Every structure is written in structure tokens, then in C-alpha cells.
Amino acid sequence: MSSTVAVRFTAGTMSESRREAHLAGRPAPDTNPDFWETYCGIHIPAEIAEVSDRPAGMPCMACMMRLPAAGGFAVDARGS
Questions:
Q1: Which of 29, 49, 55, 65 is 20 to 30 A away from residue 21, measured at CA?
Q2: Which secondary-structure segment (H or E) carries 35?
Q3: CA distance 27 to 12
């Protein structure tokens, strides 16, 4: 199981063109976060979040560029 999940706002909470599939770390087992902090820095409240093990929809490129590498090191295209 991946330690990363896809998170986006549920349908009807914003326009479809803004419902990007963001990436976030999977929370610890048996915990329910109040919000999802995505790799690009957006906080999506849990009550209006759609969470999936697989991406759905247009991916957030900022999240993709910050996706942790397989060795556990963060990949950041900005060089930081």
C-alpha cells in the first residue's frame, strides 16, 4: 500500500475545472484527520474531501513535483 493518496474537493464544492487531484500522505492507521495537507500546501477539510488510493481527474502538478521519491527523499523541482 502506498503512503500517498489522492485527495480532491468533492463534487459541488467548487467548479469542476478547479477539482485537481492533489497528493497527500496517508494518515496513521485508525486516525481521521480534520483536514488533508497536500504536498503543494493546500488544506482540504476532511468533510469535503474525496480520497482515493488512485488518482482521479487532472493531477496537481505542484503536488507531483513534490512527490516523495522511493528512497524516502522528497523530490522538489525548485531545487530546495
A1: 29
A2: strand 35-37
A3: 25
